[in-house]
Amino acid sequence: MIGFPILSLITFLPVLGMFLILFMKKEQPKSIKYLTLGITALQVVLAVILLANYNYASAGIYEEKSFKFIEKFRWINISGISWLGTVKVDYFLGIDGLSMPMVLLTALISFIAAISSWTIEKSVKGYFALFLLLDAGMMGVFVSLDFFLFYIFWELMLLPMYFLIGIWGGPRKEYAAIKFFIYTLFGSVFILLVMIGLYFSATELMADGSKVHTFSLLALMNPANYSADGILSALNPNNLRLIAYIALFAGFAIKIPMFPFHTWLPDAHVEAPTPISVILAGVLLKMGTYGILRVSYPIFPDITRELMWYIGLFGMINIVYGALVALAQKDFKKLIAYSSVSHMGYVLLGMASLTTVGINGAIFQMFNHGTITAMLFLIVGVVYDRAHTRGLNDFGGLASQMPVYTGFVTVAFFAAIGLPSMSGFVSEALVFIGAFGVSSIRVLTLISTLGILLGAGYMLWTLQRIFFGPLNEKWATLKDLDKREYAMFIPLTIIIIFLGVYPSGMLDIMNSSVNSLVNFVTSLAPIH
Amino acid sequence: MSESLLINICIVILFLPLLGFTTVVLLGKRIPKLYLFEVAILGIALLLSIIVAYVKLSFYNTKDIVAAFTWITMGNAPSPGAISIELGFKIDNITVLMLFVVNLISFLVHVFSIEYMRGDKLYTRYFAYLGIFTFSMLGIVLTHNLLMMYIFWELVGLSSYLLIGFWFEKKSASDAAKKAFIVNRIGDIGMFAGILILFTQYKTFTFDVIYQQIAAGNIPFGSNAWLTAAGILIFMGAVGKSAQFPLHVWLPDAMEGPTPVSALIHAATMVAAGVYLVVRIFVMLTADAMLVIAVIGAFTSLVAATIALTQNDIKKVLAYSTVSQLGYMVMSLGVGAYAFAFFHLITHAFFKACLFLGSGSVIHSMHHEQDIRNMGGLKKKMPVTYYTFLISTLAISGVPLFSGFLSKDGILAGTLAFGKLTGHWLIPIIGFTVAGLTAFYMFRLVILTFHGEPKDHHKYDHAHESPFVMAAPLVVLAALSIFIWYTPNPIGASDGWVLKNWIKTPTQVVPLETRYDFMKPSTEEAKAEVHGEVIHSVEYTETMHWAHYPAMFLSLAVAGLGILIAFMFYQWKKLNADKLAEKLKPLYNFSLNKWFLDELYDMTAIAGTLSFSSILAWFDNKIVDGIVNGSATVTRFVSRMSGWFDTFIVDGFVNFTAFFSGFVGLSFRRLQTGKVQTYIVFVIFAIIILLMFFKPF
After folding, report:
1. CA B54: distance to chain centroid?
2. Predicted ipTM?
3. What separation, in Å, do the N-terminal and C-terminal C-alpha atoms of chain B show?
4. Per residue in B154-178, pLDDT tens?
5. B153: nearest CA in chain A?
6. What is the residue extent of each domain of chain A?
7. Does the pTM of the predicted model rise above 0.80?
8. Are A401 and A478 in contact (CB under 8 A)?
């Protein structure tokens, strides 16, 4: 168990990089950029090492011994202060099939975003320092197994994000940054409250036989750890579990973002610089759904079962509503932002099915949406860098001017539409298969299939408006992709097509954990 | 040849065009000659498919060869049970026939395109797209399960999108491409829902396993209605791809693509995929589902035929005739004439590809003139094109000695028998009407294009016969439109090897009570033998026999009548088409404007969706986000109020206290004069007051 602390390394490597950058001279922007690129590349290597040493049978979820790469020690330990008893927080990291795909995604997207950040020229030092801090925060969320630690990383990433939008953003950057910050913080308050409620409701049996309140997610999943009078204990007839669940869910839902909490997203995306949009859509949104699966589902299985129809309902609303609103957009980036709302709806719908197929589909969709939407935002960035406009009606005929770019755009757009042979199809199909199999959300699933149609509608319309038709003379000087841009698009394209043809490459990683989660959440008798 | 070798050859055939596509897409810019590689690859695929067809039909005639592998497995899933998704191939007679048809037409179109597309800006790219189309189409043909069918179904949609919009600089082309994809998606949603129903029940996508389950009495959600629904929903996919009413509107627009593409995709192969799908799911169709299919097919064939009467664009006429003929095939499946439907698919593929390539040859030599009112007299200039076009027209019109007669006659006999057995007489009536209309508009097309005097002399003078690579495919396809390839008896299709040995109507698997009466097997020993398989009642066989000659004579009569009227109008000018059009103005306009369906869809579905989406966008911006910003405003107001309260009330009190003490201090300062006399006076006063207060004395 106490092996090489590879998870700490992958999480804090960017922090190390941040400090290095702080000591570098700001007259050397090139070396700062290369350092960042190196750090993120190293992170990708570490993620691949993790994958290579990962045991596909590791179920994880509620069982500590079946997590991989565990690091656990007492981090905060204040013994015996008055009525609080011993306060302890563990530094507890580990990986299972839920987090493995997310770690891979975070490493990959950070790397791509680092390449994309090459065009940043304003206060390079500050930008890349914050960038790396953000990277660390994201990675930390996905590897933490202690609620307290999870929450720290969750909040940690807010700060750099705020500055990255607020300083390097577009014309309305202050508005967007503040909106993002306040909105997410607002959600975090709920998470914090529930976290504290859970802390006081449950205890963990220590080696010395004493019972100590705990933040350990795994301990909180075990119904036997709850005291009869805890406010969030199922044993307490007057418990507040339903309210706590909704509060926690709302906290996570803001991040997804779930209707009606989604309006910060278009603003944040439109104002954020391209690499930050890539990270925002590629990784940050997944934290919401990841949090629900990691925290809400196994800690509140009873309420989850009760509310699954509503989760499915919101999934359906996200899918159809997001797609319809996307159809009406006139700004390229806003359109992609709303398409994210729609695509994250599939994740919710799959989660609502509470079946292995549906949740596998949901997590796979999280990964695929990460890669596909990252590519879409990069695409917007390419054209915005050159033309300094994003109006869908300002273009026309770019296909003849920028053929290679158009080729990548076609791949990304059809991936977003869910064309078979690309990864998005498999995950959406699994979501539909899983959700349709559950009779209570069958009708919701059928309505959600409209998303497939509307998605084709707005994507192809965009393709036509920007790339087809006669070339708008204004853009006759635009250059096709350069080598750096190839370096961003080619890996993503390969991954999208590879996982479309061979989805088992990703599904096998998560399958046993998802099985375990579904088992845990759906079985009425405690499994521990 | 062993079975596994056969399968392996099929897999090679499938992936060859994909190899062509990737090679040409990645390297085509540097090596423009690579298009020849793509053509050569199709040649190899064609040769291999001929070998496969020969081996399969002669040595494994009654045996299906299946190979599958597991694509996704969740073998230990607790809920809703273990899942394993298989992909795989199934080689039966229908598959190998389709393999041959697709590869042959694709190869001929490749060859034809070498000359037709020469000089195009994206010449090499064009061949790459043909490659990915062929790959996708072959996938549909070879699959043994619904999921893979859907996967390749969508890929075909993609390649169709790319090829329709090939000349993307034209707005009409990119519009048409978008329309085709989206309209097809509507059908695909239905198809996907149907697949979901089946998967939920059977946990598999494999056709044969599903059919075994249904035959064993395992019905989706325990209800025949769901079985019917699954059938109709999957059929919706065919409604989209095979351009059936009400989703047929994309196909005529798809003519914006290069003409060889129209021949390959939008006439011969891809649009036939819908029919192929129905062929594949035929055994799980209940009587209700079949009736829906028959009605939609019949109505489609009628609508399209009435529109084709008045079109003036050579490709539009052919496009609507394609829609109409696809309607025929679908109708034929709906009335249970399975074998004739598939037979018509094959014969139609050849003669329609020939017609489209012929029109391409005309358009090419007329410098992209497509309006038949500006043509005429081309017979002399383009004899090869003319005679091949004529042969195909005779075939589609249902004239004996040609392939179309064989298959069409069978379909009409099937509808007639169906009418007699079920009382749905409207379907045969529509069937025969459409046969007459078809003969009429096809000969109208031939006469206006090739006969008579040239109308545009400038273009006519420049017209010339097409070069060898364009003429040769026409000859091959025209030759395949003659009866001898299918049967030795020019009026008896059933005597031929195609129907007698190769295509056999499979046994229905749906519960007896959901079948047509005539599709229930008879209980007695006198089970009817139709093409060697026990499927239909004695009654049906007898009715088919009864229908054979009446149907043949009737179809000959209507076809002859149609051809005669066409000659009266356009060749001999005994009747005046313009005057008739003037007289029937509303009807004429209705037909010319395609029943105003595009306008109807624009005004309802499209405008409705777009305005609804605008309303939602407004709602999102003003209401949902308004609440967010509003609560921010409220918070700011409250904070400003508390700020005011803090400044003026809370802090005001503090300041007031300070002020008060200051004031008091100030007032008392006056007392501190610094003069001893004053202090003494104060002290004396104080003492006096104290003495008065305590009264010590």
Report:
1. 31
2. 0.92
3. 145
4. 999 999 999 999 999 888 999 999 9
5. A420
6. 6-522
7. yes
8. yes
